[in-house]
Give the backbone structure.
Amino acid sequence: MRGRRKIDLQTLDLFAQPQLSAQDTLGALARLSDAGLLRRLDSALAAFVHGQDPGAEPALLVAAAVLAQMEGRGHSCLPLAALVARPNDVLAWPREAQPLLAALWDRLPPRLEDWLAALQRSPVVRTVQDGSGKAVCNGVDNAVDDGCPLVLRTGAEPLLYLRRYWDYERGVAAHIARRTEVDAEPDTDRVRGWLDRLFGPSGADKPDWQKLACALALRGRLSVITGGPGTGKTYTAARLLALLFAMAPDAQQLRVALAAPTGKAAARLKQAIDASLLDLKDSVQGELDLEALVQRMGAARTLHSLLGARPDTRYFRHHAGNPLDVDVLIVDEASMIHLEMMAALLQALPPTARLVLLGDKDQLASVEAGAVLGDLCRDAQAGCYLPATCAYAESAAGQRIPAEFMAAGAALPLAQHTVMLRESRRFGGPIGQLALAVNRGDAPAAQALLAEHTRLGVDAVLWARQGGAAQRIAEDAVHGRGRQASYAAYARQLGLWRSDRPQTPQEHEDWVCGVLNAFERFRLLCAVREGDWGVAGLNRAVEAVLQAQGAIRKEGEWYAGRPVMVTRNDAQLNVFNGDIGIALPGFADPSRLRVYFLQGEKLHAVSTARLAQVETAFAMTVHKSQGSEFEHTALVLSAQGGNVLNRELVYTGITRARQAFTLWAEVPGLLASAIASPTQRSSGLLRFLEHGVRCSA
Ligand SMILES: Nc1ncnc2c1ncn2[C@@H]1O[C@H](COP(=O)(O)OP(=O)(O)OP(=O)(O)O)[C@@H](O)[C@H]1O
C-alpha cells in the first residue's frame, strides 16, 4: 500500500472544518485512498453505502471503508470496540499518518455505543445477536435476510461484516457443529486391535497422539490433525484410511478422495499416502487390499479442481445441490484454505462424508480473508478434552490423556475432534530448533542459534547474513555457499544442452527432468514482491548473475532455463496456480521453447505462447512457497516489509528448508521484530460455535 502513495502525508489536509458531514467524510476517505493509506476499493465501499443510504452517518462511512481495508488484509470482520478505542492497532498506518488518523478520530463519536447506534440506524446494516435467532434491519425486526450489504453482530465484542463473510462464517460454523456431533461409537475393541496393528504398540510414558487422532476421527465426520513439519500428519492420515477401510461394512465401496490447495501439495500428499499405505501391506497381512484402495483413490486434486471451479466466477460445479461423490476426503495444507473456499468445500461435501483436515496451524494463513485452520485449532495446543473423550480414547486407542490436556470446564465439541501431533520425526536438528524458537516468540534464542551456526562456516546448516547489496544474495544463490544446495546444480544441468546434447527423446526427457529436479533443490523466499530485496528485484539480480556466467541467454521475456510459476489456474492447459515449470528447448524443434512441468513422475509441456499468467520463479514469496519444501531455502527479509514481516512468515520460510536455511536481513532488527509480531486475524468463527449457530433465519 505504501508503494502507491502519491501524496505527501505531512501536507495532506483532510478537513476544512471541525464538524464532519457525510460529504466531508467521503472526501476525506477518498484523499486517504489517494495517499495510499486506504485502497480505492475501501473508499468506494463507503461511497456505495452512502449511495444506498444518503442519511449514513460519518461513523458508518468510516467503518465501511475500514472494514473493506481489513478484508484486503485477510480479516473476515471488523472488531468495532478496538477500532473506536485503538484505531491505529486496527489500521496499522505508518507513523507519519498518525496526525491524519487523530484528526479523523477527533471528528468521530468517542463512544462505542454511538458508533453502534449510527450503524443500527442505517438500512444498509443488518443487526444480529449471537444465539438469539433475532435479526434487525433499520430498526425493524427482520428475520428474513433482505440483502443488507453489512452485518453487525452485537454482543460483548461487536463485529461488523461484509455480508458475504458473515454468510461464510455462519455456514462454516453450522457445518462444523453438525460434523462434530458424536455419531454412534465404533466397536472400541476392534478399533484398538487395528490401531495396534497399524502403529505397533505404544510406550506408556506419553500418549501416542497419532493413534488418538485416528480413534477420534471415527467418532464424527470432521477430524482436524495439526502439527509442525515431519510430525507424521500424512503418516497418520494413511493409517486412518486403512482403519476406515478395516472398519467399513463394505470396504470395496468406500470412495476416498485426496486434495490440497495447490497442485504441488496435492501431488506430495498422494505420493506420501500411497507409499505409507503400501508400507502397511505386511501389517495387514492380506486382510485389507490396500493396493486396490490405492488404485481406486486416483490422483489427488487441487481444491479448485475437486470442486469444479467455473472459470472467472466464484461458483463451483459441486455444491449442496450437487455434492461430491466421496465418503472420505483428506485435505492437506489446510492452513492455506481461506474462508470462502472452506465454506464452498463444506457445502459440497455430502453430510455423511468424513472430512480430515491436515495442516500446520502456525503457518501463514491464506492471502485471502480468513484463517480457518488457525481458528479451528485454537484449543489444539491445550487439548481441552472432555471426560467422555478421555474415556473413549482409553478404550479405543489404549491412550490415557494426561490431566494437563483435559478441559477445565466446558469445551467445544470441535476440540474433541482435533489432535495436535507434537513430535517431529525429521525436524529435530538446528532447523527444527530455530522453527520452535520462532514459534514460541523467543527472538534471543533464534538469534543465538543463527549466530552459533553461522560461526561454523559456509557449510553450516543455519547461516545468517545482514545488509549489503541484493547482488550478494543473487551471487550466493547462483554460486552457492559451501556444500549447501543452490542454483549451481540447475545451471550445470542446463549447460548439458550445449556440452552433451540429448540425442533421443528419452535422453531429452531425462535432461528436462534433471533440470527441473536440480531447480527444486534451492529457493529464494521473499517477504515482499517489490524492491531490490523483493521477488522482482531478486529475480532480475539472479538472471543477471546467470547471464554473466553464460548459463542463460536472456534476450526477451522467454529464454531457455527461465523458471516460472503459474499464477492462475488453467484447467484447459492442465496447469494450476503455484505450479513451477521451466522453459526449455523441445526435442523435435529445439528452436521453440516449451515450458515443462513435473506432474508426479510425468512431464507435461506447454508452449510458451499459451502461458500468459506466469512469473519468473528464482525468487518467490513465502506465501507462494507453502506446500513446498527445498533442501536449502534462503529467506530474504526486506526493510520495506512493514507489517508483512511477521512471526508466521518467518516460521513458514524456515520450515520450507529440509537441510539448510539461510537468513538475509536487509537491516538489523528485522528478524526480532518479525518474531515479536504474531498475526492476529479478526474472525468470529469460534464465537458462532460457542454461541450456537442460530443468529439468523
Ligand atoms: N509413528 C511413526 N513411526 C515411524 N515413523 C514415522 C512415524 N510418524 C511419522 N513417521 C515418519 O516421519 C516422517 C515424517 O512424517 P510425515 O511426512 O507424515 O509428516 P508430516 O507431518 O505430514 O510432514 P509435512 O508437514 O512435511 O507434510 C516420514 O518419514 C514418516 O514415515
